[in-house]
């Protein structure tokens, strides 16, 4: 090896990114499975995501043109005006598109949209892509690319005449990422706080079952003899005194039952 090659070695290309936060998902310390769907069943999480998504979606979005004197005016004739301000794609309004993208960003830390261009290279549509089916990776030359796993619910522009996995260049993907460690992939706020969310899910489930049992802990029915059908007595007791609607009823015990 040349001595200068040993001294001035080229920097290694970045390692495989893996493209996601799958290692952060899964069971929390409370034993509950936490992901973006179970987290949305929590009132606090749902309310925060809804308020932030609707607030961003409701902001005005214009395309401006700067004049020679530094002034700016709305550029109504720009090709992006219709895409950003009115209709990113035939299936969504600008409000719904931005609300969906913000929802993805808040729950997974990443929001992806495929950029559709015409023959002249002009952007004519933006289609949201599901973050859980997107992988950010690098090829053998260290160049960034996006691998998207198709599904039957994808629009035709995404799935037409393409294999199960679609490889997209960075120029064909609008990627909005949240806080992350490498500047290329964001980490999900829900996954980072899965123990807190899991604790809230467990507490809510415990409270619901507690009130379903008449707001009283489980008890023991004691009989001095041998019961031939204990399951029948258990079901009879539960149907008579179980549930919050049956609370505070007076129990009449027979045959020495305690």
How would you describe the overall organization of this protein?
This protein has 258 residues and is an alpha+beta fold. It has helices at 3-7, 36-39, 43-57, 79-86, 94-108, 156-159, 189-192, 194-212, 230-241, and strands at residues 26-27, 33-34, 64-66, 72-74, 110-117, 123-129, 134-138, 144-149, 165-168, 173-177. Helix 3 packs across helix 5. It is elongated. Mean pLDDT is 78; it is low at 3-23.
Strand adjacency order, main sheet: 6-5-10
| Integer average pLDDT | 78
Structural class: alpha+beta
Could you give the order of the helices and strands? HEEHHEEHHEEEEHEEHHH
Ends apart, CA distance between termini = 89 Å
Radius of gyration: 28 Å
Major sheet summary line: 3 strands, antiparallel
Low-confidence runs of at least 5 consecutive residues: 3-23
Give the overall shape.
Answer: elongated
Helical percentage: 25-40%
Number of helices, counting only DSSP H or I runs of 4 residues or more: 9
What is the number of E strands? 10
Strand proportion, as a percent range, falls in 15-25%
Structure, briefly:
By secondary structure, this protein is of the alpha+beta class.
Descriptive key words:
258 residues, 9 helices, disordered N terminus, alpha+beta, 17% strand, three-stranded antiparallel sheet
SSE blueprint and pairings:
Blueprint: H1 3-7, E1 26-27, E2 33-34, H2 36-39, H3 43-57, E3 64-66, E4 72-74, H4 79-86, H5 94-108, E5 110-117, E6 123-129, E7 134-138, E8 144-149, H6 156-159, E9 165-168, E10 173-177, H7 189-192, H8 194-212, H9 230-241
Antiparallel strand pairs: 1-2, 3-4, 5-6, 5-10, 7-8, 8-9
Helix pairs in contact: 3-5
